[in-house]
Design goal:
two-stranded antiparallel ribbon, mainly alpha, globular
Amino acid sequence: MDSEIRNMIRQMNAANPLWGAPRVHGELLNRDIEISSRWTVLILARIYKTRLRLGSVMAACKNFPFDFFNGASHEGASSIFGAAAG
């Protein structure tokens, strides 16, 4: 039952990213799902923390001069020896 509620909160958050914990909690109460507002906040905090972590990793990879996925340097980026790549 707990995993079903967590998945429902994740789906609500994905469909409505601007909704905060009080709105999500209210929607759950409207659907006769008894959950404390504290648990709603904790589940949403875990979702946001994961998104922030993944976003910072992707941003770091995007700004790195070496493309890990294609195995080549970005055009115009300097190599470790200072020569222009390309």
